[in-house]
Amino acid sequence: SDLRPVTVIGLGPMGQAMAAALIRAGHSVTLWNRTPSRADELVAGGATLAPSPAAAVAAGKLTILSLTDYPAMYDILGPLAGEPGALADCTLVNLSSDTPDVSRQAATWAASHGARFVTGGVMVPAPMIGTSDSYAFYSGARDAYDRSEPVLRILGEPRYLGTDPGLAQLFYQAHLDVFLTCLSSLLHATALVTAAGVPAAEFLPGALTTLTDIPAMIGDGLELARALEAGEHPGDLSTARMMGATAEHILRTSETAGVDVELPKAVRSHYQRAVAAGHGDQDWTALYEVIRARR
Ligand code: NDP
């Protein structure tokens, strides 16, 4: 196995879980964190706390960053970049969240200082790091990714998306787009039911079934993907007009119940505009024509 030294910079819940998984796997792990005390438990477990970011990066060829955002990386590594050779010949794998554009700029910045750069987006919460359910998206320079892959695999299943460094954060955000919207809709629907005096427990288990019915309706997603790309929305069962009437009813019920209306308004707006654009008798998937067009 490949037991090269690994540096982890950033010891929030996520960085701590990553460092712990790497130690468990037998790697020699060097740490740096702005608040040094967050390394205490890991140092007791065998990791080494570096006295500076420069010393941390110099401890090996692979540095994993787990920070709040990309500006934190510049705060930490920016001063090093001024020292000739300090970042040369190292691979930086940044698993912090930010926008695709910011991660693209960071790849250019790293390259200008001689570093290889891989962007990542971790798709599981910190306690799941190192388990068989863990996975993360990666993108950026293929050779740097390939060299790091055996180490990254310890954190979770790595999914490499391509050389564009923005892809990992794009996929991270697209998945969270689905996730966050579903979570808000669950809370909104629960509020609708409890406003009528029905206990949440009588609703929520069934609502979860509605979530898992979506794959049954859409299958593996490939036919939907093909239809969306082709702009084809045939169908007379779940038309935009029929679904839009339901969206209208949900909005009115929300108003009457006195619960928040912003989410149902947004959904109704998709259907209203699709119908107005002439997609009323097409499948609900015609909403894509409204959604993908920047207004
Ligand atoms: P945080 O997002 O709170 O990151 C905390 C780390 O960033 C700490 O090490 C903190 O240092 C450091 N930091 C922040 N700003 C600066 C700065 N300006 N200069 C130096 N260090 C800074 O915690 P997490 O560990 O939860 O998340 C890390 C990343 O992983 C985030 O981008 C998050 O979106 C992503 N992620 C997290 C998940 C989770 O379950 N936690 C799940 C999926 C992704 P200090 O200790 O000194 O404050």
Description of the molecule:
It contains 12 helices and 8 strands. Helix 7 (167-195) crosses helix 8 (204-218) and helix 10 packs antiparallel against helix 11 (262-279). With 295 residues, it is α/β, with parallel strands linked by helices. It binds NADPH dihydro-nicotinamide-adenine-dinucleotide phosphate (NDP). NADPH dihydro-nicotinamide-adenine-dinucleotide phosphate binds at residues 10-15, 33-35, 38, 66-68, 72, 75-76, 96-97, 122, 125-126.
The sequence of SSEs as H and E is EHEHEHEHEHEEHEHHHHHH
Give every kind of bound small molecule, once each: NADPH dihydro-nicotinamide-adenine-dinucleotide phosphate
CATH-derived architecture of the largest domain: 3-Layer(aba) Sandwich
Q: How many strands, which pairing sense, and closed or not: the largest β-sheet?
A: 8 strands, mixed
How many structural domains? 2
CATH homologous superfamily (4th level) name of the largest domain = NAD(P)-binding Rossmann-like Domain
Overall mean confidence score, pLDDT? 96
* Oligomer state of the chains in this structure: single chain
Strand fraction band?
Answer: 5-15%
* Poorly predicted runs: none
Notable traits:
single chain; 295 residues; alpha/beta; Rossmann fold; N-(1-d-carboxylethyl)-l-norvaline Dehydrogenase, domain 2; eight-stranded mixed sheet; binds NADPH dihydro-nicotinamide-adenine-dinucleotide phosphate
Tell me the layout of helices and strands:
Elements: E1 6-9, H1 13-24, E2 29-32, H2 40-44, E3 48-49, H3 53-58, E4 62-65, H4 70-81, E5 91-94, H5 100-112, E6 116-122, E7 135-140, H6 142-155, E8 157-160, H7 167-195, H8 204-218, H9 222-230, H10 240-257, H11 262-279, H12 287-291
Parallel strand pairs: 1-2, 1-4, 2-3, 4-5, 5-6, 7-8
Antiparallel strand pairs: 6-7
This protein binds NADPH dihydro-nicotinamide-adenine-dinucleotide phosphate (NDP).
